[in-house]
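INFO  loader      accepted 1 record
INFO  loader      residues=146
INFO  predictor   begin
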Amino acid sequence: MFEFNVSQQSSLGSPASFEVNAQTITVELLRQMLAGQQRQNELLEELIQQVGAVQRQRANELGQWRQANPELADRCRQAADALGRVQTQYLENLTEEVSDSWEHLMDGEYMLTEFVDRFGPRLAHLNGVLHVLAQLSAAPNPANAH
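INFO  predictor   done
INFO  writer      dumping tokens
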């Protein structure tokens, strides 16, 4: 690291030597910053590789599950499609409620809390179920398309 001497000296160096010293310090600081950035990039690359490996493993496991349970995977896809339509209708109801009563939602904490309590948990749970079904779903079979 660097050490700066801030004690008073009887003779100061020439302005030229001070400028050279400042340039040397600047160059060394820039080198250290570059080394830090290079290490950070190495760590990010390692992180990306690890995350990618986990995702590939998960995709492989899901693919194996789908192959072992093709009928259930197809029913999961059908259920996800149906619940997707339910979710769309639910979101339409939610947005209609907001359009009709946005002034009340802004005016009172009670109304906003009631709105969130009414729509929030169901929406969160529905999204969770849809996510699971989508993960387990088989790809749509064009031969069986309706």
